[in-house]
Amino acid sequence: MTEESIFLEHVGDTPRMRLLQYLIEGRDFDYTLTDMINAGVSWGTLNTLVPVLVELGIIVKTRKIGRATLYKLNLENPTSKLLASLYDGLIKKQLEKMQEAELVIA
């Protein structure tokens, strides 16, 4: 059994949110569809989600390498910014909670 991330705990563990979490965590990098399989989303779901997220402006095509197109989280998009900010805030809150627990134990 894998532990659910705090982000997915708050926004729901759906294929779309798993993919967005993956892209938020690696927001400085661009990814091929094959790379995005690591988000825990099936190939068919990826091929459905990516065009929708591109159309919404949440992710953008960055470049092509051979036949592969690379995508990245669009940090210019207000929705992407808010999701990344939520992710960062939740992680920060979790780290602070863990540090407090360590101080109590020590």
Under the CATH scheme, which class?
Answer: Mainly Alpha
Sheet with the most strands?
2 strands, antiparallel
CATH architecture: Orthogonal Bundle
Low-confidence parts lasting 5 or more residues at pLDDT below 50?
Answer: none
Task: Give me the CATH superfamily.
Answer: Winged helix-like DNA-binding domain superfamily/Winged helix DNA-binding domain
Specify the number of helices: 5
- How would the global form be characterised? elongated
The total count of strands amounts to: 2
Oligomer: single chain
Radius of gyration: 16 Å
Helical residue percent band: 55-70%
| Total domain count | 1
Which structural class is indicated by helix and strand composition? alpha+beta
Record the strand order, biggest sheet: 1-2
String of helices and strands: HHHHEEH
At a glance:
It contains five helices and two strands, in the order H-H-H-H-E-E-H. The protein has 106 residues and is of the alpha+beta class.
